[in-house]
Amino acid sequence: MKAVALTQYLPIENPESLVDVILDKPAPQGRDLLVAIKAIAVNPVDTKVRAPKATVEKSPRVLGWDAAGIVEAVGPQVTGFKPGDKVFYAGDITRPGSNSEFHLVDERIVGHMPASLSFEQAAALPLTAITAWESLFDRLRVSAPPHALPRKTILIIGGAGGVGSIAVQLAAKVAGLNVIATASRPESASWVRELGAHHVISHHGDVAAQMKELGYSQADYVLVLNNTDQHFAAAVQIVAPQGSICSIVENSGTLDIGALKAKSISFVWEMMFTRSMFTTPDVAEQGNLLNEIARLIDSKIITTTLNQVLTPINAANLRKAHALLEQGSAIGKIVLKDF
């Protein structure tokens, strides 16, 4: 089968950083689905895993953790899917990725694809939808509507990226929160407003001061999707007493958690691979939430965050997608379709 892989961890400008390869077609075992891949999306995790380092792989390593396709075959323990089903999922970072013609994935972390979407539109959603959903409802413990008035407020730092684009929609249209999102350029600010943000400010300026200009002295929740080190102090300043901060971006410096004590602030990390990495007892919740995302899409409550499509799926286009992400200015999701 065709695949895009690496054996060395190189700068994306190097043509050997991602290469076209031919691999054996895998066979499903246990609860695995064998999926014929129709479209994939690229995320910052792909670029972080691929980032230059001295390691050399003995055999080609396939990356990619966002896919949509058709079930080709199922393992003997599969109960929720059958050949021919259209599916979408983010996969498991401890297993080979989805940048290949065929891919094995545990059925418990797979959703039935939204009926109203194309494969490329669906492939834009899984990793970011899982991350945004878990951040809001599992980590920050945002309650479901109906809410008592006045509505609670969330500040989403990095609202125009992949996760931000779905988090804004879930926060505004599903959780019923008042959403303040950050965006740094006119085109990204426009994108975030179209997705449902009630207010847009810049994360390159004084975030607290900009909120005060809007009439907000604090937010009940802060979701950090961009540079935790840079925004942690502002998040602590902005979050309300007994409020919560969630971040999806690993820190490189030391975070002053002592600053959380006076206001009894909760700080929590979100990593969407946790359930699959550790096979947690609730691992099937990822499949369940993807099915709920599909329902929300088909009900036209939320929309895909696809913004750019490259074709075909090959090393040259994946290198282009990685380079675009590494520039740090991508809006929404970049998707590749068809081998």
Describe what you observe in this structure.
By secondary structure, the chain is an alpha/beta fold. The protein has two domains: 2-125 and 277-337, Alpha-Beta Complex (Quinone Oxidoreductase, Chain A, domain 1); 129-269, 3-Layer(aba) Sandwich (Rossmann fold). Helix content is 29%, strand content 28%. The chain contains ten helices and 16 strands. It has helices spanning 44-50, 119-123, 126-139, 162-174, 186-195, 207-214, 228-238, 274-278, 285-298, 315-326; strands at 2-9, 19-22, 32-42, 53-62, 67-74, 86-89, 102-106, 110-112, 153-157, 178-182, 199-201, 219-224, 239-247, 266-269, 306-310, 333-337. Strands 3, 5, 6, 7, 8, 15 and 16 form a seven-stranded mixed beta sheet that branches. β9 (153-157), α4 and β10 form a beta-alpha-beta unit. The longest helix is centred in the middle third of the chain and has 14 residues, at 126-139. The protein is globular and about 60 Å long. The relative contact order is 0.16.
Helix content estimate: 25-40%
Major sheet: size, sense and barrel closure? Answer: 7 strands, mixed
Number of strands: 16
Give, in order, the helices and strands.
Answer: EEEHEEEEEHHEHEHEHEHEEHHEHE
Figure out the total of helices: 10
Task: Return the CATH architecture of the largest domain.
Answer: Alpha-Beta Complex
Radius of gyration: 20 Å
CATH topology of the largest domain: Quinone Oxidoreductase, Chain A, domain 1
Question: Regarding quaternary structure, how should these chains be classified?
Answer: single chain
Domain module count: 2
Query: Which strand-content bin applies to the residues?
Result: 25-35%
Mean pLDDT: 95
The CATH class of the largest domain, by name, is Alpha Beta
Backbone structural class: alpha/beta
Regions with little confidence, pLDDT below 50 for 5+ residues = none
CATH superfamily descriptor of the largest domain? Medium-chain alcohol dehydrogenases, catalytic domain
The N- to C-terminal Cα distance equals: 10 Å
How would the global form be characterised?
Answer: globular
